[in-house]
């Protein structure tokens, strides 16, 4: 800008002073927002039981998948690990493949016509034909294997930490990862996974809670509290273990959950604690 003439100098100075006032007024400055004030609130859910189905009390459930009236289940423990096809309504196991004694089965996902199963500490996964459980491929990974699901384009894998990994479903190479957190707190012990309507549902090991996770940033957007789901009456004399196993029927919008050595599998409806109706 050229220097002002003497006749315009006063007007020019007034304009500069006015501009300085506008720039430095509180309305023009960025607001001093307290940390977390704009963070979306976390929704807390309880549940309503819709149906109860028989479940093999000898199944140490690690992974669970639903497709067209059939449950596919991965069961763990060394010497007892298996891949199973289970009738939802009766709980009858209609097909079984037993893994070698050195493998501890973990998460399971149905990808197209293949079932993909993880193992715990063997750094090995297996790919099976869905119809006959024939092994078509094996693959390796460097972490432990815990839960497995997919979002339609990527496999999503947990390893017991607060990190979820995204894998290419053809090459099984890691294409990305996300750290799961509730506000500023990491959420570790992520176990069995299921992808439901754009969110990842994750059992948190040794708890009765399922974390609802935004896969884009790892933020926990909700908590599902399943405390009391398996009552003493339903448990009977069975030596049950922890809650684990989530399956989703996308066509019927049905959510199924169970646990390790549980004699029952539950179809549940989520109920917001803040808005129960």
TrEMBL record:
It comes from the Bacteria. Coiled coil: none annotated. It holds the Pfam family Glu_cyclase_2. Residues 1-30 form the signal peptide. The keyword Signal applies. The keyword Signal applies. Keywords: Signal. This is Glutaminyl-peptide cyclotransferase. It comes from Candidatus Dehalogenimonas loeffleri. The lineage of its organism: Bacteria, Bacillati, Chloroflexota, Dehalococcoidia, Dehalococcoidales.
